[in-house]
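JOB MANIFEST
job_type = single_chain_structure
chain_count = 1
residues = 207
[input]
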Amino acid sequence: MADVALSATPSKLSIDNPNDPFVVQRASKDDLPEILAIYNQSIAGKQATANLAPVTCEERMDWFEEHINSPTRPIYIVRAAIKSVDNIEQETLSPIVAWGSFSDLYARTAYHISTEISIYLHKANHSQGLGSALTHWMLTQAPSLGIHNVVALIFAHNHPSLGLFRKLGFEQWGYMPKVCDMDGFIADVVMLGKAVTPNNTTVSDSN
């Protein structure tokens, strides 16, 4: 696996709306509670995750530490940049509004060039273009992490997410019918994929 340096340097995330800028950076050890708060918001809707009950920090600590200590499978957090009295953006003073991760597609070593992407937004930040912007930004980072292929596993009934990823150039690489018991209905899962290189990750930011 490629040896890529860890960096916590914030980068700007550009979207058209709202007007306030966003910054994105790698998650740190203190971010897990906010990350899980956003994740747990998504469970009740049964569209974004196959978990059916909220998860705790204790349950996800091993997962979190594996990511924040990995040079090639980061978790990125997004904060709204707010301006102090001296007009300097202070992104660390605002709560996390979204996060995304790259995870191993499969544990075997030969799969290291391929990864699964996950994106979660705070419920107050849906339908603002933030999910599209964060996904696009992560695609631009993927080649520097040694990633050649990015895969998204999405419920077939999650039409907004399917539309977002397809708009960003993802194509259907697989379809798994009736694989998830969602406690009330059986769900299909669509595998969308995109090959990424430094030259093909420039795509639309619009949602």
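[summary]
The chain has four helices and eight strands.
The helical segments are 32-41, 57-68, 130-141, 159-167.
exit_status = 0
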